[in-house]
From TrEMBL:
SUPFAM superfamilies for the chain: Class I glutamine amidotransferase-like
GO molecular function: gamma-glutamyl-peptidase activity
Name of the protein in its database record: folate gamma-glutamyl hydrolase
EC number in record: 3.4.19.9
Keywords: Hydrolase, Secreted, Signal
Major location (coarse): secreted
A Pfam family: Peptidase_C26
Signal peptide: 1-22
Active-site positions on this chain: C145 (nucleophile), H258 (proton donor), H258
Keyword Hydrolase applies: yes
Catalysis: reaction(s): (6S)-5,6,7,8-tetrahydrofolyl-(gamma-L-Glu)(n) + (n-1) H2O = (6S)-5,6,7,8-tetrahydrofolate + (n-1) L-glutamate
């Protein structure tokens, strides 16, 4: 009888000790989870501007009003914790404006179009970016390749400022300007070892036929007053061009190279896919989205869900072994040619 009671007592003690340990573990976990930073928006949304065409020289869609976004840009943004709303360039201006009011930052992609409606829309959105920042909303812009070239044209007020370079399907280095300060730039997250490798190893992808030399850039007052040069690169003929710039006063960054390709594109033979190259992609994406988290634009959830990229499906075209692997194709009624936001 007493032995039975003693066994029950021991079981009771073991249960109590187990509960006490569990409670102490729970308390420890709770105490290690700090409150979220109230200065940041943890549900950022990026608007990516579509480009004329289907991204496949008409093989996927020959509609005259078609436009596309390469899926690599979407994956690039999503990998850093943001959602994407496509800004379809030839939608009616009021529709495009309403979508612009749903996002916390904008990305201009690569491509070829430098005139007409597309140029006007890029210029209009760029002006909106400046206005939003001037009004107190931290609203970043990342311009890649063609986006870099278009901003160069818009800011310089010279549509003929670009020069010919031979940098198609080329992996390259980035040469940092002497005494450049990378704090507050897209390179701020890079470890010193990776910064050093960028100058000696081909970790970035170039795919362009136009650019701007440091001499031409520095000779234009508008460009020099808006941007500071962070890096330069050399084309296949050893000609030097500006490859990374950062605005002095706005969260606007422009790169002539393609940070999205290293991790998410396979169609071009010279895209770097090493561990270091993938880190380059991830650090740039993280920087851009971290800038978007500083925007407190908080649109209605339903409007966001009605417009996010998940409402569309990408088309696979990687079997061709060149160009983009996947693209989102949009067909919208064209807006009037003369477009000013």
């Amino acid at each position: 009888m007493w032995n039975y009671i003693w066994i029950l007592f021991l079981i009771y003690l073991l249960i109590e000790i187990s509960f006490a340990k569990a409670a102490s573990v729970d308390d420890g976990l709770t105490s290690t989870c700090p409150a979220l930073d109230p200065r940041l928006n943890y549900r950022p949304i990026i608007g990516i501007l579509s480009h004329p065409g289907d991204g496949a020289s008409g093989q996927l869609s020959n509609a005259t009003d078609a436009s596309y976004i390469a899926a690599s840009y979407v994956k690039f943004v999503e990998s850093a914790g943001a959602r994407v709303i496509p800004l379809i360039y030839n939608e009616p201006p009021e529709v495009l404006q309403s979508k612009l009011n749903l996002v916390n930052g904008v990305l201009f992609t690569g491509g070829w179009s430098k005139a007409g409606l597309y140029f006007d829309v890029v210029e209009g959105i760029f002006n909106q970016v400046l206005k939003k920042n001037d009004a107190g909303d931290h609203f970043p812009l990342l311009a890649i390749c063609l986006g870099f070239e278009l901003l160069t044209m818009v800011i310089s007020k010279n549509n003929n400022i670009l020069e010919a370079f031979s940098a198609s399907n080329q992996a390259s280095t980035l040469q940092f300007m002497k005494n450049v300060n990378i704090e507050g730039t897209l390179f701020q997250r890079f470890a010193p070892e990776l910064i050093a490798k960028l100058s000696t190893e081909c970790l970035v992808m170039q795919n362009h036929k136009f650019g701007i030399s440091p001499e031409t850039f520095q000779g234009n007052m508008e460009l020099c007053s808006f941007f500071k040069i962070l890096t330069t690169s050399r084309d296949e003929n050893n000609k030097v061009y500006v490859s990374t710039v950062q605005s002095e006063s706005y969260p606007v960054t422009a790169v002539q190279w393609h940070p999205e390709k290293n991790a998410f594109e396979w169609g071009l033979s010279m895209i770097p896919h090493s561990d270091d190259a993938i880190q380059v992609t991830q650090h740039v994406a993280n920087f851009f989205v971290s800038e978007a988290r500083k925007s407190f634009n908080n649109p209605p959830a339903k409007e966001v869900l009605d417009n996010v990229i998940y409402n569309y499906s990408p088309t696979y075209r990687g079997k061709e072994g060149k160009g983009y692997d996947e693209v989102y194709i949009f067909t919208e009624k064209a807006a009037p040619f003369h477009y000013k936001m």
